[in-house]
Amino acid sequence: MRSDMSGSLIKGKSIVDHIIPITPMNYLDSSITLNLDNLQLLSLEEHNQKTFNGKDLSFEPPKERRVNLF
């Protein structure tokens, strides 16, 4: 498999990433969260660099909005 971001061959773990990140302002917007055109395949390293590079990502949806998927 190849990374959608860099085009390089993914030799280790891969992850599907949202191109437009999920935020407290858009997490209920299905055109962002469920849109297949908003997804890209990345290596785990690329994903972690993109997602966690100096960002505070603490986000807890309100209790009344939490969904148990399992």
Low-confidence regions: none
Q: Outline the biggest β-sheet.
A: 2 strands, antiparallel
In angstroms, what is the radius of gyration? 14 Å
Question: What order do the strands of the largest sheet run in, or round the barrel if closed?
Answer: 1-2
| Arithmetic mean of pLDDT | 87
What structural category arises from helix and sheet content? alpha+beta
| Shape type | elongated
Question: What's the helix-strand series?
Answer: EHEH
Question: Would you report the number of β strands?
Answer: 2
Through-space gap between termini: 29 Å
Question: In oligomeric terms, what are we looking at?
Answer: single chain
Describe the structure.
One of its GO terms (molecular function) is endonuclease activity. This is HNH endonuclease. Keywords: Endonuclease, Hydrolase, Nuclease. InterPro entries: HNH_nuc. The chain is α+β, with helices and mostly antiparallel strands and about 70 residues long. It has one domain (about 1-55). It has helices at about 30-35, 45-50, and strands at about 15-20, 40-45. It starts with 13 loop residues before the first strand and ends in an 18-residue tail after the last helix. The mean pLDDT is about 85.
Compact description:
The protein contains 2 helices and 2 strands, in the order βαβα.
